[in-house]
Amino acid sequence: MKTAIARLLVALSLTALVSFAADITGKWSGQVPGRDGQTREQILNLKSDGTTVTGTVSGGRGGDAEIKEGKISGDDVSFVVIRNFGGNEMKINYKGKVTGNEIKFNVGAGERTYDFVAKKQ
């Protein structure tokens, strides 16, 4: 009996975690810093389904890129985008914190990192 109750509590806890994940579904945009000091707009089309995040990131030199390994837990979101630069694949890691209609991202590609804020459109 105690084991059944413990299992039920664990299942309810996991369900609660999924239900408390922020819904980030929609179009987001932000100004991303460039190497030359200029900024460029980046558009994120995101879809959250439970703890999974899918969608695309556009605004880069390579056009739209599919989101991979997308996860959301509470207000923390993370995903990876693979870009191809001159025949070399680069894995770009996005980690963000959702606050209302904004996501504050830290983005890392190799040794280069930068921060930007995406706002829901």
Tell me what the structure shows.
With 121 residues, this protein is mostly beta strands. It has one domain: Calycin beta-barrel core domain (Lipocalin), CATH 2.40.128.20. The protein contains 1 helix and 8 strands. The chain has one helix at 2-19, and strands spanning 26-33, 39-49, 52-60, 63-73, 76-85, 88-99, 102-109, 112-120. The protein has an 8-stranded antiparallel β-barrel. The radius of gyration is 17 Å and the shape is globular.
Write a short abstract of this structure.
The chain has 121 residues and is mainly β. It is globular and about 60 Å long.
Strand content: over 45%
Tally of separate helices: 1
- Fourth-level CATH superfamily: Calycin beta-barrel core domain
Instruction: Give the end-to-end Cα distance, rounded to a whole number of Å.
Output: 50 Å
The stretches of 5 or more residues where confidence is low (pLDDT under 50) are: 14-19
State the CATH architecture. Answer: Beta Barrel
Shape: globular
Helix content: 10-25%
Q: Which secondary-structure class do the elements indicate? A: mainly beta
Radius of gyration: 17 Å
Overall domain count: 1
- Quaternary status of these chains? single chain
Task: Let me know the largest β-sheet.
Answer: 8 strands, antiparallel, barrel
Residue-averaged pLDDT: 86
